[in-house]
Every structure is written in structure tokens, then in C-alpha cells.
Amino acid sequence: MADDTTIAVNRRARYDYDIVDTIEAGLVLTGTEVKSLRDGKASLAQAFATVSGGEAWLVQAHIPEYAFGNRANHDPTRQRKLLLHRRQIDQLAEFTQEQGRTLVPMRLYWRDGRAKILLGLARGKTQHDKRKAIAERDADRQMQRALRERQRR
Predict the structure, then answer these.
(1) What is the pLDDT of residues 121-147, one digit of tens each?
(2) In what helix (H) or strand (E) does residue 147 lie, and over which residues does it extend?
(3) 91 FRET partner, CA 20 to 30 A, in 42, 52, 81, 135?
């Protein structure tokens, strides 16, 4: 993982969803999309993945138009095909059949010169779960603060 370079991270993924498992997938991109990603520009905030017609797709990921592109520039929010093995696609399709489960893109990065996306197999959190996570995080922070204060004395 030392030569992975992160392009974009979906920071709300772990807040809004309980991540059960992760899977790495490749992306089918056009030339201007690759150049835009090389500039480090992308957003996964509204993105999700879906399985339809026996293929996996990344939907609503925003890769802005390449600044020096011409009229053949790409559509920033077009659907992009995900490169996965048949067995993996079948597993993802089976996972998403159950109510409240989805595929959330968590991180977009370069690996060995190829754009990869880390998908989280996720269950949606309820408002109660989100509040509980915030309370636990605050309690941990207060404990750490108290330990640091105690060590100073």
C-alpha cells in the first residue's frame, strides 16, 4: 500500500453507514477523466454503486471536466463501469438484495498507475446509531484527555 496515492475519500461513508466488508474494483475511464484524476480532482460525496444487467456501475461520482480538454470532454457525473470478477459481481448483487444494504464508494486512489475504487458493503445506520457513535467518540476523547492530564502531574 506504500505506493497508493489517494485521489478522493468519502468521509461521510463511515458516519452514515455501518461498513460490513470492503472490496477493490477497477474503473473504466476515458482519457480526459484520467487526466482530471491525475490533477487530483474528484468527489465521492453523492456517489453509490449498483449492479444491473450483470455489471457493476459507479453512479453519480463527480470527476470534473479536464481544464485543457476540447469538445470531446467527458460528462462529469456519467455512470462508470466497475471492473470486477463475475463471482464478485454476483456476491454484490446478492448482498444488495436485502433491505437497507448498499454499496458505498469509500476511497478513490491510484494503484500501480491504475485508478481503483474501494467499495464498502454497507448497512444504513439509523439516527439512533449515529447518536450513539458520536457519544462513544466523545467519551473516548474525554478519557484520553483525562489520561493525558493525569500523566502531566
Answers:
(1) 988 777 887 888 889 889 999 999 999
(2) helix 127-152
(3) 42
